[in-house]
């Protein structure tokens, strides 16, 4: 039996570096996390769908701008995509993966996303600039206990688990 794994040359691949945030807010119903529902193109025409599409929830994140530090990117992206300001607590970790661009050149990209645990400071969730509606359908708070079930991406669910572990070890946070 032969090994069907093909070696991946990460050196020749385009690289992207992004950062995002797990924003916590303590309210009357407990601890919540800020999530976004990204804008997605419908896979089928509306008339052919049998039921409404299931919402896709993700953590706010985006590309690190030149000269910007990843923690600054996380804070900026949280504000742009959710309408809230937050302050950093700690870095949770990195997610690394390869994807193929579905637009333009169809190139393979090696992506690293650094996630930070942030504390809500001010603002109203989903109060975002109209031009951001191209990227974000809506932003909302969900109970942190539901986040690992509702987030669409495994790496982001892992970041929620890391945030919960951090809070268990640092209750003062």
Low-confidence stretches: 42-46
Q: What sort of overall outline do the alpha carbons produce when their principal axes are compared?
A: globular
The CATH homologous superfamily corresponds to Nucleoside Triphosphate Pyrophosphohydrolase
Q: What is CATH's topology name?
A: Nucleoside Triphosphate Pyrophosphohydrolase
**H and E string:** EEEHEEEHH
Provide the number of structural domains: 1
Give me the Rg, rounded.
18 Å
Q: Estimate the helix proportion, in percent.
A: 10-25%
Q: State the total count of DSSP E strands.
A: 6
Query: Could you tell me the strand content as a percent range?
Result: 35-45%
Give the C-level CATH assignment: Alpha Beta
Note the gap between the termini.
52 Å
Give the helix tally. Answer: 3
CATH architecture: Alpha-Beta Complex
Structural class by SSE content = alpha+beta
- The average pLDDT score comes to 89
List the defining traits of the structure above.
single chain; 173 residues; 3 helices
Account of the protein in words:
It is a single chain. This protein has 173 residues and is α+β, with helices and mostly antiparallel strands. It has 3 helices and 6 strands. Strands 1, 2, 3, 4, 5 and 6 form a 6-stranded mixed beta sheet that branches. Helix 2 runs antiparallel to helix 3. The radius of gyration is 18 Å and the shape is globular.
């Amino acid at each position: 039996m032969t090994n069907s794994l093909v070696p991946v040359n990460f050196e020749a691949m385009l690289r992207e570096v992004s950062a995002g945030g797990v924003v916590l807010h303590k309210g009357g119903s407990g601890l919540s996390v800020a999530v976004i529902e990204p804008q997605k193109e419908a896979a089928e025409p509306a008339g052919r769908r049998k039921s409404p599409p299931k919402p896709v929830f993700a953590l706010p994140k985006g590309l690190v701008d030149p000269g910007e530090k990843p923690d600054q990117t996380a804070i900026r992206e949280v504000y742009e995509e959710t309408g809230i300001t937050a302050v950093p607590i700690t870095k949770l970790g990195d997610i690394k993966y390869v994807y193929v661009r579905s637009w333009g050149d169809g190139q393979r990209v090696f992506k690293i996303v650094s996630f930070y645990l942030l504390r809500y400071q001010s603002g109203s969730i989903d109060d975002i600039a109209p031009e951001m509606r191209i990227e974000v359908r809506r932003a909302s708070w969900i109970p942190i206990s539901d986040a690992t079930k509702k987030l669409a991406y495994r790496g982001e669910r892992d970041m929620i688990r890391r945030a919960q572990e951090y809070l268990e070890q640092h209750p003062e946070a």
